[in-house]
Amino acid sequence: MDYLAVKTLHVSCVVISISLFGLCGLLQLQSKPWRQWWLLRVAPHIIDTVLLGAALWLVWRSGQYPFVQGWLTAKVLALLLYIGLGMRALGRNTPPAQRPSYFAAALLSVSYIVGVALTRSPSWGLF
Ligand code: HEM
Q1: With pLDDT > 70 as the criterion, what percentage of the chain qualifies?
Q2: Is the CB of 59 inside a 6 Å radius of any atom of ligand 1?
């Protein structure tokens, strides 16, 4: 498989995944029943599986590994934080008053991941 094609797949899934999360989050904040829509309930799982599959392939083919390369370590740890915050933002049991904070924190954490990916630096190359 072509490296550039898989990287394009990874980045395309990133764009779709963040857009779907943003959409679900905004609908959730407006108390809209977004779980009724098949696309919003199922598509994120499919997209995120492809995103992570492509990530693992890129790790393998580029020979750059989490817990060896600092930027990939930062990506994995921030991804775990993003998943946790995203689950709280969208979870059924989260008090409505707490949702906006979790949603904003999840968007900040995924923005950090994108910055790390683009700069290949945990500090975005700032220091
Ligand atoms: C929400 C999570 C993620 C986001 C937002 C994200 C974002 C990105 C972006 C924007 C790029 C392209 C960077 C460029 O222009 O070269 C990229 C590349 C890459 N990502 Fe991810 N990524 C995520 C998760 C992961 C994970 C979990 C891993 C590995 C465990 C990973 C491994 C890689 C690798 C190896 C590349 C290719 C870097 C290169 O060609 O040197 N990504 N990612």
Answers
A1: 100
A2: yes
Residue 76 alpha carbon to ligand 1 centre in Å: 10
**Closest by alpha carbon to 79, among 52, 53, 58?**
52
Residue 113 Cβ < 6 Å to ligand 1: yes
Single pTM value for the model? 0.95
Domain locations in the chain as residue ranges: 3-119
Spell out the SS3 assignment of 92-109.
CCCCHHHHHHHHHHHHHH
Q: Is the CB of 27 under 6 A from ligand 1?
A: no
Q: How far is CA 55 from the centre of its chain?
A: 12
- Is residue 85 within 8 A of residue 58, CB to CB? The reply is no
- Determine the longest span between alpha carbons in the chain, in angstroms: 47
The amino acid at residue 90 is L
Residue 84 Cα to ligand 1 middle (Å): 19
